[in-house]
Amino acid sequence: MPQVKLFDVTKRYGKVTAVDRLSLIIEDQEMVTFLGPSGCGKTTTLRCIAGFVVPDAGHIFIGDQDVTNIPPERRDIGFVFQNFALWPHMTVYQNLAFGLRLRKLPKREIKERVHDALALVRMTGLEDRFPRQLSGGQQQRVALARALVLRPRVLLLDEPLSNLDAKLREEMRFEIRELQRQLQITAVYVTHDQAEALVLSDRIVVLNHGRIEQIGTPQEIYQRPASQFVASFIGLCSFMEAHVVESSAERVLMRTEDGLVIETMSKGLSLGQAVTLALRPEFIDVSWTKPENSQNVFQAQLVRFAYLGENLDCWLKVGKWDVRVHLPASRVQKLDQQLWVRLNPEKIIVIPTEGVLL
Amino acid sequence: MGIRWQKPIFKALAIGLFVFIVVGPLSSVVLWSVAIKWYWPHVLPQEIGLAYWKQALGLQRDWAIAAVSIWDAFKNSMIVSIVATVITMALAIPAAYALAKLRLPLKAVFLLLFLMPKVFPQQPIFVNLLPVFTRWGLAGTLPGVMLIHILVCLLFGTWISTSAFKAIPESLEEAARSVGATRWQAFWRILMPLAAPGLLVSTVFVFVTSLTEFTGTFFLGLPFVTTLPMLLYSASGYNMQFASVLALVLLVPSLLFMVLTERIFRPEHLGSLGR
Ligand SMILES: Nc1ncnc2c1ncn2[C@@H]1O[C@H](COP(=O)(O)OP(=O)(O)O)[C@@H](O)[C@H]1O
Ligand SMILES: [Mg+2]
After folding, report:
1. What dotted CATH number matches A239-352?
2. Which of A184-198, A298-312, B230-244 has the highest mean pLDDT?
3. Best substitution site from A19, A43, A205, A233 to test ligand 1's pocket, by max atoms within 8 Å of Cβ?
């Protein structure tokens, strides 16, 4: 039952508030990801949980134990570092055995557990290598094994894959997720890579300026982003500013300042309220001839595109707004091409803009 | 592409410079140490022999040759330098660790205090220390000379050791903490082995500094404590042969140390303290 609980955790560095009254409960056996841009406080929060950083205020619990002022060596955690942090003067075996030896376990048990941990990350047979004799991917596996060999209560990972090449990174995502499930370990994973977060997490915590922007499952975060920041950070998204001009039981209409009237399905909005409309590429149907049904259909102009292989990443101008869509390469002919877009009313994400009334 | 022909040229230049700076004066020192008779304008000594060496090493005693046995001074030098080095490093290593790894509120002040003796000329400091040393019964004693050597060496020792600790990524220590090592255990099992090459370099520097220390010993040790540099000083000027013998003897321990540590000597160990 080692839940991890953070209550109002705050950490300042001079004028910078790296972590700002952050509260969060991470459930037993859950894998939670801290996601956010560089400098948003992910690492600092993780290091607070590890005990490398003592928060200025707030409390941290692991299980029922208040660990706020307990040094890292007594927190029973495993930590995987971005730079692997294997001890260069020790072999793989010695790296893994170090913590077990500190616990004065019998030699035979140490041997068994090191062997098991290496098998877990598929590194059997490399016991006598030194870290410098391993590839980046192998080093990361050893680092993972070193963190797991002690069977910690919580596994903490700080951008563990960011030093690996793209292909390996993708493989390792699944492996880490698989290991976490298999070992039923509570894990906190820090990344700035949204794809990693979507694949790995039970829940994603989106951070910005040391605060939580949104907590939710990958689906919730993707489909119902709570703010423009979240919407733009996860997945591709285009935005339009608008305000509510009709809000009845049948339909809700928004009007942009350049006069586009867009129907959405969102409820609970009041007349005149300012909103941001977030559009994912897959919510937008593009046609080359004017569709018959004219609901939410707007004329658009192709202004820029980038080659992605089968698809083109396209920038359209709809009214004054930039809208990103992916189109099959075969259908795009030239720039300034006239198109029609239909914005699916059920899918448009409506984010109320706080405090602005028109 | 340019590197291909630049490299050998660099190498040749470096070697040439090395020969010019080190071997040039050294060869003349070697010549002087075996010169029995060498008058101007002769390019080479007119008469060579080992008389000065024999006399210096206590193998003969001939009043006609102006050289005394160096063994007492050699013994003093060794005792003082070894003890001073051990104590200096015992102080420098923890200080370096603290400077490199801990967040000390008064680090800047501490550093400044530390650099003070290097900014001020040393002679007035030593002269002012003399009454204090006399009161404590340290003037003209081996412990007194050791103390002054420690004061002189502590800066070098701490400086280079700090770089050795700073070169170790923070995460290596944290990784140790995360698997259950206390700060103390992490220090001994992770930081010390990794800092060892740099600390060894630091030790060599301290040892050589102490072995060749002159000013402090001159003011606070003489006339009762004579070290090799003291002998060298009194011989230089009027007795080039004996001075050359001494210079070569002084070089031996340093060279030995250099050879021992050459393989682990890396420029980053001399990196800056302020990083
Ligand atoms: N040791 C430190 N000293 C000073 N500022 C720090 C320190 N660690 C982090 N910060 C600052 O705190 C903020 C959050 O940093 P961090 O937690 O590392 O962000 P992230 O991991 O999300 O990129 C940044 O503005 C960073 O500059
Ligand atoms: Mg970070």
Report:
1. 2.40.50.100
2. A184-198
3. A43
Tokens standing for A58?
């707030």
Residues 6+ apart with CB under 8 A from A61: A3, A4, A5, A6, A7, A67
Domain segments of chain B as ranges: 2-49, 71-273
Q: Topology of A2-232 in CATH?
A: Rossmann fold (3.40.50)
Rounded Cα distance, B159 and B100, in Å: 10
A10 CA from centroid of ligand 1 (Å) = 13
A72, A82, A150: residue with CB nearest B177: A72
Task: Verify whether the Cβ–Cβ distance B194 to A72 is below 8 Å.
Answer: no
Q: What is the pTM of this model?
A: 0.83
Tell me which chain A residues have a C-beta less than 8 angstroms from the C-beta of B190.
87
In which residue ranges of chain A is CATH 3.40.50.300 found?
2-232
- Residue A47 Cα: closest atom of ligand 1: 17
Residue B149, token pair as written in the block: 């050597």
Query: A37: CA distance to ligand 1 center in Å?
Result: 12
Distance between CA atoms of B265 and A4, rounded to whole angstroms?
Answer: 47
Proximal ligand: closest to the CA of A44: 1
Question: Which B-chain residues 161-190 have CB contacts (< 8 A) with chain A?
Answer: 169, 171-172, 174-183, 185, 189-190
By mean pLDDT, which of A138-147, A155-164, A266-275 is the weakest? A266-275
Mean residue pLDDT across chain A = 91
Which homologous superfamily does the CATH classification assign to the domain defined by B71-273?
A: MetI-like (1.10.3720.10)
* Cα–Cα dist A345/A284, whole Å: 10
- Mean pLDDT along residues B18-40: 79
Each residue's pLDDT tens digit, A45-84? 999 999 999 999 999 999 999 999 999 999 999 999 999 9
Give ipTM to 2 decimals.
Answer: 0.86
Strand partners, A23: none
Cβ-defined contact of A89 to B193 (cutoff 8 Å): yes
> Which residue does chain A place closest to B189, by CA atoms?
A98
Residues of chain A with CATH 2.40.50.100: 239-352
Contact criterion met (CB < 8 Å) for B179 and A71: no
Query: Where is average pLDDT lowest: A224-228, B30-34, B177-181, B252-256?
Result: B252-256
Distance CA A282, CA A292 (A): 20
Q: Do B172 and A85 touch (CB under 8 A)?
A: yes
Nearest CA in chain A to B180: A73
